[in-house]
Amino acid sequence: MKKLLTPMLLSAALAMPMAAAQANDEIGITPEATYELVQEKRDEVLFIDVRDPVEIMFIGFTDEVDLNIPYLMVDRSQWDAQKNRFRLYQNPDFAAQVEQALIQRGLDKNATVITMCRSGSERGLPSAEFLRENGFPNATYVINGFQGDSIKAGDNAGFRIQNGWQNSGLPWGSKPNPEKIYRIDR
């Protein structure tokens, strides 16, 4: 039975790559569905990690992404006292860099673009919405992002050990791919 269900579910996921994993999330896609889509239709999809590259160095990376194009970047000269961290600013070239990545792959702005951040909320969803507002109608994002949600109570409170790419048994490693990571030296 499981052997029959898996191809049926995969077919449904591929037929509707923008299918929401949650009823109130029309542009989200689960990590598992993202992986399946990328495996089956790699030439038709642009999968980008939108985290700051320094964050990737410390949290991990999946080589399944095509590129790292940061949506929000860390401004190490400005401290955000309310959030107790450095200020984040929007990459002013984000849409142009995504479009260039599509062109390099022989795709246009109508292709499926999947964004992934750490948790899906601060950069994943906003980056997909931003792309849609800027002429990329099929932009979506990975629900719960790369690292997933943090546990709210118990011995593991505060640890990001539930859901997300990293906790779903999908391929990832501790080091970024130097050919895919966002770099200003090339």
What does this protein structure show overall?
This protein has one domain (2-168): Oxidized Rhodanese, domain 1 (3-Layer(aba) Sandwich), CATH 3.40.250. It is 28% helix and 18% strand. It contains five helices and seven strands. It has helices at residues 2-15, 31-41, 53-59, 94-104, 124-133; strands at residues 28-29, 45-49, 67-68, 72-80, 85-90, 112-116, 139-142. A five-stranded parallel sheet has the order 1-7-6-2-3. Strands 4-5 form a two-stranded antiparallel sheet. The radius of gyration is 16 Å and the shape is globular. The chain starts with a helix and ends in a 44-residue tail after the last strand. The model is unreliable at 1-24 (pLDDT under 50).
What keyword list fits this structure?
5 helices; two-stranded antiparallel ribbon; Rhodanese-like_dom_sf; 186 residues; Rhodanese-like domain-containing protein; disordered N terminus; Rhodanese-like_dom; Oxidized Rhodanese, domain 1; alpha/beta; signal; globular
List low-confidence stretches. 1-24
CATH homologous superfamily annotation: Rhodanese-like domain
- The DSSP helix count reads 5
Specify Rg, calculated over alpha carbons: 16 Å
CATH architecture: 3-Layer(aba) Sandwich
SSE-based structural type: alpha/beta
Name the shape in a single word.
Answer: globular
Strand order of the largest sheet: 1-7-6-2-3
- End-to-end separation in angstroms reads 51 Å
Q: How many structurally independent domains?
A: 1
CATH third-level topology: Oxidized Rhodanese, domain 1
Beta percentage is 15-25%
Give me the strand/helix succession: HEHEHEEEHEHE
Can you tell me the CATH class?
A: Alpha Beta
Number of strands: 7
Helix content: 25-40%
Domain Rhodanese: 41-158
Protein name: Rhodanese-like domain-containing protein
Keywords: Signal
Pfam family, one: Rhodanese
